[in-house]
Amino acid sequence: MTIGVTGSSGFIGSYLVKKLRASKYEVIEISRTKGYNVLDADSLKVLPKIDIIIHLAAVTYVPESFNKPASFFDVNVQGTNNMLDVARINNSKFIFISSYLYGIPSTLPTNEQHPLTPTNPYAASKLMAENLCKHYNSFFNTNVVIIRPFNIYGKGQAKEFLIPKIINLARTGKLSLFDSRPKRDYVYIEDLVESIISLIDYKPNNGFEIFNVGSGKSYSVKEVVKVVLDNLKNPVEVSYDDETQEIPIPNTVADISALNKATGWKPTVSLAQGIQKMIE
């Protein structure tokens, strides 16, 4: 079986490619470093026959999506469209890595049927890409599985993201953060990769399914900081600039029962274990 992975040199992609090759899959890395560009349809025409496409290529840092929205829509929407067309031509199964799209949840844990309310340009671009996936399934019978990860973290993540930021600041002995209250469901990178691999041989019902991926638990920023400090030896001065205004999204918890029922996948790395791996 030949598996094409876009964004293969990125945070998730580098873990995934390593795991796929260790599992003896033939992997084609679809990235600029390998001569392929998801925004250049001509560069994709020379790809060999691919059985499964795992589409990771995206720009992901949410704050930047407000400053440069065009680049997010270009890469995350048009790039997805180009790869879906490769899937159509090759009759490939398409696994798309989406994002949290539920806005302020009305129910916790939140399942895949919850209404979608993107709260930033990044999430909006992922929702548009999901709709393209639906259309390719409807019009061309492309088999599609969509994964909606909640908050991903792990070794190698960019320093701008919350948990690497907390670890790096804590190492300086002084940790100052904006808000201690927001709670998020954090899924470790290795668990996310295992969730993707669990879907390689899975046949989606009616050719199209969506699955949440998370831990099924949530932790506040303050609780994350405590876990980090419990793993560090040096004293750290901690302060928060908590504001009295309402938190945009107070809490997120993934209902992960659908994927567990479909493939047996479940997370194995706790937040404490994941942070310990990052610090070590």
Account of the protein in words:
This protein is α/β, with parallel strands linked by helices and 280 residues long. The protein has a domain at 2-153 and 187-214 and 255-267: Rossmann fold (3-Layer(aba) Sandwich), CATH 3.40.50.720. Helix content is 40%, strand content 18%. The protein has ten helices and twelve strands. It has helices at 11-22, 41-44, 62-67, 69-90, 121-140, 162-171, 189-198, 221-231, 257-263, 271-279, and strands spanning 2-6, 26-30, 52-55, 93-97, 144-149, 151-153, 174-177, 183-184, 186-188, 208-213, 219-220, 237-240. A six-stranded parallel β-sheet has the order 2-1-3-4-5-10, with helices on both faces. A two-stranded parallel ribbon has the order 6-9. Strand 1 (2-6), helix 1 (11-22) and strand 2 (26-30) form a beta-alpha-beta unit. Helix 1 (11-22) crosses helix 7 and helix 8 (221-231) crosses helix 10. The longest helix has 22 residues, at 69-90. The chain is globular and about 55 Å long. 40% of the residues are buried. The mean pLDDT is 96.
Q: Any key phrases for this structure?
A:
alpha/beta, 10 helices, 6-stranded parallel beta sheet, 280 residues, single chain, Rossmann fold
